[in-house]
Amino acid sequence: MNRRAFLVTCALWLGALALPVGARAEDPPAPSPKPKKRPGTPRERWEKLTPEQREKLRERHREFEKLPPEKQQKIRERYKQFRSLPPDDRARVRKNYERWQKLSPEQKEKARERYKNWRELPPEDRQKLRERWEKMTPEQRQELKKKRKGKPDKQD
Predict the structure, then answer these.
(1) Measured between alpha carbons, how far is 2 from 68 in angstroms, rounded to an integer?
(2) Checking phi first, is residue 33 left (phi over 0); if not, alpha (psi -120 to 50) or beta?
(3) How confident is the prediction along the chain (156 residues), in pLDDT tens digits per residue?
(4) What CA–CA distance (Å, rounded) separates 5 from 135?
(5) Beta-carbon neighbour count of residue 28 at 10 Å?
(6) Strands (DSSP E) along the chain, which ranges?
(7) CA distance 29 to 27
(8) What is the Cα–Cα distance from 18 to 85, expressed in whole angstroms?
(9) Measured between alpha carbons, how far is 88 from 107 in angstroms, rounded to an integer?
């Protein structure tokens, strides 16, 4: 997987992690209002960009054009999905993406492994854990996070 596709996938994966605790990937998405149109024409928005921003976009476009058509389509669909999110949810996805970018490769690998383990749990077990998490106070959650940081990862 090339770097761009990986980054887009990670951003969307982090967005999924940011879903409300009770939401499940199996649940159909709730209908959301159409995104508001951005002010100005595409040309006007382009002209407001700095030369550095324009060059960065050109480079990303060149990378995108090199992708197979099915990957391009998948990225377009995910982008539409992202744009249809309410502003608060988009902000949460961006925040999680930025947090992901700051992780070391080792931390990213641990996060991937934890997510894989989570997805392999039976749905009933995941639901029980969600319910337990929801019942916890913020202090209890913070304490659990502190304890988890000190534990080595389970080795199968």
Answers:
(1) 11
(2) beta
(3) 555 555 455 455 545 444 444 444 455 555 555 556 667 888 999 999 999 999 999 999 999 999 999 999 999 999 999 999 999 999 999 999 999 999 999 999 999 999 999 999 999 999 999 999 999 999 998 988 888 766 554 443
(4) 37
(5) 5
(6) none
(7) 6
(8) 12
(9) 26
Query: Encoding tokens for residue 38?
Result: 């951005």
* Contact call for residues 133 and 141 (beta carbons, < 8 A): yes
Q: Tokens 């077990």 identify what position? A: 125
The reported pTM is 0.52
Query: Which of 1, 17, 38, 5 lies closest to 97 in space, CA to CA?
Result: 17
Place of tokens 């080795």: 155
What the block records as the tokens of 146 is: 């502190």
